[in-house]
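Tutorial, part two.
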Amino acid sequence: MNDIEYQISFVANSVERILEQVDRDIISPTFGCAHPAYWRDRTSDFADMRRQEVALPLALLYTYDYPDSPWKADLRLKDTIEALLSFWCKNQYPDGSMDEWYKGERAFAAVAFSTHAVARTLGIMKNSLSEEILFRTKEKLDKTGNWLVEHDDIFKANHQAVGVAALAAVGEILEKGFFKDKAYKKIKLLLNIQTKEGYFPEIGQFDIGYTFLTIEFILMAMHLWGDWKYIEPFRRAFDFACEWVHPDLSTGKEYGICQNIHISRIAIILMSKFSQRAAYLRKKIEGRCFGFKGHSYIFSDDLRLLRNCYSPLLAYDYAKKTQVMGESEKIPLSNGQAGTVMYDNLGLARFSCCGSTGILAAVSGGLVRLFGKKEESVFSDYGYALQLNKIKATNYIYNSKVRIEKIDKGMALSCSIVLVKKFMPPLLARKILRLACITPIGASLTRNLINIVRKRIVTPINQSSANLSLSQAIGRFNRQILFQQGSLKIKDKIQFKKAVPREALFFLESVGYGQIKNYPLLSRLKGLPEKIKKLEIVKLYSLNENWELKEITGF
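Running the prediction step on this input gives:
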């Protein structure tokens, strides 16, 4: 069983769970709703319309053969798909917009993602659906398609890319070339924001998962059209995203603003005839299974399962239609001779040391991640934490302004030690949001304001668990990594504004891909003063099969 087959098995085994998410009571006012918090639990006062996208994977399973899937021609799936489409048609605003995260949002993402899924569902099942459902859904697709024509979202590049794929799918099912022409205009707007490194920014910053998702949806549109004339900018974006793919085909949430770690199998398959790195990755995923870690981000909860379980099914279908490039190139982190590359604008660097590789993520407080000789061998040094009563502080926060400095035989950075803080909108802000979004104009102005806040505090606000860098700074953290013959040296300097008890200080580390753990400084360093205001720590690591701490001193 290879990687894609494993994911298909996961989806096929989740269908019963998926069906339970949908209101299938035909006389219910919310018949066809796939948002249980709305139709069942009453903890939400609106329906997240993106969950209706699960119609697409159900349509694929109903119509086509997949490895070990028992769902082809299962009438429960057909009935559920018609229910999902019915609710999608009934729960749009008059202009064709709909909500995702809050009432009155009229969200571009909700329109684009769900329109793409619904249009493709019709394309797959047009001979199986009732004439009434088919006619009504086409009417609504025409409306949502026209809404997308009039709107763009280049603040989040992946949304714009999904808009392209949605218009491509709508144009195909409605047989209207107008939508295809408008989709090309959206591609050109997207190309205007591509950075010199090659990625397409999310909230003005880099995010690896959304870079792959942007590429995925553009490639699906190109595949539908059979037109690859704009492939080169997206090949550049793909190859840049591959800079941060780990040897075991995972990646780190710490490298991007949205913490999205999705490595798109669809993008790998469709790009494999244009990119040598994609060809390398395709051979990997078609040759073995990478387990749940390989798709944990897109299937980790019911929200993501409903939205994303189309992914391995379409990847499987595209693989049967797409040839792979003959030549391939190892991704950098799998190549111990790839060298050191710093990306100044991103606060990220990858490096080679002792025949292996690693990452320095200044944007995440100086995280050092070291890869061993085996794919699953990885060690992460996040820095330090202060835990004193209810006070928690750390250098390990996302801050896109932290930069890496090149020094003799290594690299260095400096960042703040801050009190840990999450962004949580207060009750009053939520009430104001609800009132402001009563009208389309209010919703648009509110969205613009939210985007300003997102950019100022450098966080997506939702769908991110990152600690924020706007919290009060209580100290300074400086880190150097030095490349030596047969070893790697990390030199840290910690300075607090006020002295803190030595027992309140901890190392932050993880081995493999396990949970981050904190270890008291006193467990490794003896003779520390009872109160610490300034401390220098030097760690020496060497590589056998795994990276090992050989020596540590503190003064």
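Residues 139 and 360 are 51 Å apart (CA to CA). In part three we will examine how such features are distributed along the chain.
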